[in-house]
Specification:
The complex is a heterodimer of chains A (184) and B (147). With 184 residues, chain A is α/β, with parallel strands linked by helices. In chain A, 42% of the residues lie in helices and 18% in strands. Chain A has helices at 3-27, 79-98, 112-121, 135-140, 167-183; strands spanning 49-51, 58-60, 68-74, 101-107, 128-129, 147-151, 157-162. In chain A, strands 5-4-3-6-7 form a 5-stranded mixed β-sheet, covered by helices on one side. In chain A, helix 2 packs across helix 5. The longest helix of chain A has 25 residues, at 3-27. Chain A starts with a helix and ends with a helix. Chain B folds into 2 domains: 3-101, Helicase, Ruva Protein, domain 3; 103-147. Chain B contains 4 helices and no strands. Chain B has helices at 3-45, 64-78, 83-94, 109-135. In chain B, helix 1 (3-45) packs across helix 2. The longest helix of chain B is centred in the N-terminal third of the chain and has 43 residues, at 3-45. Chain B starts with a helix and ends in a 12-residue tail after the last helix. Classes of the chains: A alpha/beta (184), B mainly alpha (147). The interface between A and B is medium-sized, with 26 and 26 residues.
Chain lengths: 184, 147
């Protein structure tokens, strides 16, 4: 075998390895334009329990089974959280009328009193709870606020959005999920 | 002093000595095990990326979430979880990017293996090249030219 042939064979093997590595990378679950990847997707949602910062009522994700639940991690010091607050409230108002979906807010790295003030200032009415020790945030793998997870009526994490959400964006994602469930 | 009293005294001090020895051993053992646990927490914390920082481990970061993650690692160590079990629990929540060094199993193992494969291929190419050149040197003149 000539040296040129050997180099060609070895070069071919190297190129095949690179193509295989790229193909594996491409086949990994990728984030869509709006949604982000999370290892929790398709898995049961970690438990959320706490006391509402606004009403003092006890809140639990388990009690919201049967509806789509939007779990939103926020902080008063986070500017994008402020910009998405009105959209979340609009979504909550529309969906809670029909009892099809709801929202639960979880404070991320913030002082409870400041977070409460933020909720009042932004006119939030949906339940939001404190997360001492960031236990819930760690369970969900939150890397920074705002971070939003959508949980289906069976309690499975079906979508994750990193960054601010809009009312129409949430509607679109949930409608898409509803459509998918109906067709399967 | 009567013999019985002397025997009683010796037995008493012997008992006190044994108790002191046991307490001392237990205390040293517990300190040592606490030290081992603390070392393990530091070791794991150094491999976990702080989720809200840029390229810092939770061991090096002073962010509140880093402190909370260190607390969770300590809890996991108290539950007798191994280093890889703790790392895997964070990977299950955050994905592989939470680790500062790639895992040695699954797809991440490629990061460790590919450089070795590339070096081996390079050595093979060089060996083939020199072997070929030794066999057919470019300066080898055709027979009869020296005549």
């Amino acid at each position: 075998m000539t040296i040129r042939k050997k180099v060609l064979i070895i070069g071919g093997v190297v190129i095949a390895c690179v193509v295989a590595a790229v193909a594996i990378g491409v086949s990994l679950p990728a984030a869509t334009d709006y949604q982000a990847y999370s290892p929790l997707l398709g898995k049961p949602a970690p438990q959320i329990t706490g006391t509402s910062l606004l009403t003092g009522a006890s809140e639990s994700l388990a009690n919201l089974r049967g509806r789509y639940v939007v779990v939103n991690f926020f902080a008063s010091w986070c500017t994008p959280c402020e910009s998405e607050a009105s959209d979340l409230e609009e979504f909550y108002y529309q969906e809670s009328q029909a009892h099809l979906a709801t929202i639960i807010g979880v404070v991320f790295e913030d002082v409870t009193s400041t977070a409460r003030k933020f909720l009042i200032q932004t006119g939030t009415t949906y339940p939001a709870i404190a997360d001492p020790g960031e236990k819930i945030a760690i369970e969900y793998g939150v890397t920074g606020p705002p971070s939003t997870y959508i949980i289906d009526p069976q309690g499975i994490v079906v979508a994750h959005v990193n960054g601010p959400v809009t009312s129409s964006g949430l509607e679109a994602v949930i409608n898409q999920l509803r459509h998918k469930r109906q067709t399967t | 002093m009567k013999v019985t009293s002397r025997v009683f005294l010796v037995a008493f001090f012997g008992l006190v000595a044994v108790i002191c020895l046991m307490v001392g051993t237990l205390a040293t053992g517990s300190t040592r095990s606490r030290q081992v646990q603390s070392d393990l927490v530091e070791q794991v914390a150094a491999t976990i990326r702080c989720p809200v920082c840029d390229g810092l481990s939770v061991a090096d970061s002073s962010a509140p979430i880093a402190k909370d993650i260190r607390g969770k690692i300590l809890q996991d160590v108290h539950r007798h979880m191994t280093e890889s079990q703790i790392e895997n629990s964070f990977v299950a929540q955050y994905g592989r990017s939470i680790l500062l060094r790639p895992q040695r199993s699954g797809l991440s193992a490629l990061v460790w293996l590919l450089p070795l494969v590339a070096i081996s291929i390079g050595i093979l190419i060089l060996a083939a090249f020199y072997y070929d050149r030794a066999k057919n040197p470019p300066w080898k003149l055709p027979r009869g030219d020296l005549k």
